[in-house]
Write a structure and sequence with these properties.
The chain is α/β, with parallel strands linked by helices. It is built from nine helices and 15 strands. The protein folds into two domains: 110 residues, Rossmann fold (3-Layer(aba) Sandwich), CATH 3.40.50.1000; 108 residues, Rossmann fold.
């Protein structure tokens, strides 16, 4: 039986860089017309939800900020309870605005953080920036290290690019800290999405292009995972231990698969 709710990855599923995946807008329109409960999930921390809504609109997909769950939104809620106090934000300036409840630590401080938040800074990373994050993590009392997802890489217009995970792993190794992950593939991120939809894990399906972060993460959280052959997909992904519940050429095939699997 197909899931009654769908969690849709964005980058690599509905678009690749700035280019729309053919049939993606029509597939989402199909879901909306049939009132299938759905939510967009993304580990993107390089732009706020308002920018994602605008980007999707330009690709023919109408949605709202409330229909998009990002790691900064999940992290903002987590920090209020588990690590209150100044946060060192290693995220793009526009994304920092998503942290509505957080007191940002001044950028020239190398101590005094209650948490160190690591997102996708892209070309903003250099030795000085990374070393500041390391020094903050080594200061006493030790702050929490929060990773906004653990995506390894993504496909940009100019090719594959490193994402947040390599930088988090480097900081963990150097400081001895263990990151709290508030993004894919952490189960808590998927469960937060289910909480928004009012859905149980066994009633939901995740569709994504990352066999580890999307499919493996979903299955580890008790959901089903569907892999698309767009974005970062590689044929070798099908030779891993992770076995997708279905493999589609692209999200354009989703309506037919959804009907057939029911």
């Amino acid at each position: 039986m197909k899931g009654r709710a769908l969690l849709v990855d964005l980058d690599g599923v509905l678009y690749e860089g700035e280019r729309a995946v053919a049939g993606g807008a029509a597939a989402i329109a199909w879901l909306q017309e049939r009132e299938v409960p759905h939510l967009f999930l993304t580990n993107t921390t390089s732009r706020p939800r308002a920018s994602l809504v605008e980007k999707l609109a330009g690709l023919g997909v109408a949605t709202t900020e409330q229909s998009i769950l990002t790691p900064p939104v999940a992290a903002d809620r987590w920090l209020a309870t588990h690590a209150p106090g100044p946060a060192a934000l290693f995220v793009p300036a526009a994304t920092a605005d998503e942290f509505e409840s957080v007191q940002p630590l001044p950028e020239d401080c190398e101590s005094g953080a209650a948490s160190v938040i690591v997102g996708d800074l892209g070309e903003g990373w250099d030795f000085t920036v990374l070393n500041r994050a390391f020094r903050l993590l080594m200061a006493e009392p030790r702050p929490a290290l929060v990773a906004l997802g653990m995506t390894r890489y993504w496909r940009a217009a100019d090719g594959l690019r490193l994402d947040v995970a390599p930088f988090v792993k480097g900081l963990e190794h150097a400081s001895g800290a263990q990151a709290v992950v508030l993004g894919k593939p952490a189960p808590e991120f998927f469960h937060a999405a289910l909480g928004i939809l009012g859905c149980e894990p066994g009633d939901a399906v995740v569709i994504g292009d990352d066999v580890v972060g999307d499919v493996g993460g979903a299955q580890g959280a008790g959901l089903r995972g569907v892999l698309v052959r767009t974005g970062k997909f590689r044929p070798a992904d099908l030779e891993r231990e992770i076995r997708p519940d279905a493999v589609l050429t692209s999200i354009a095939e989703l309506p037919d698969w959804w009907e057939a699997s029911g």
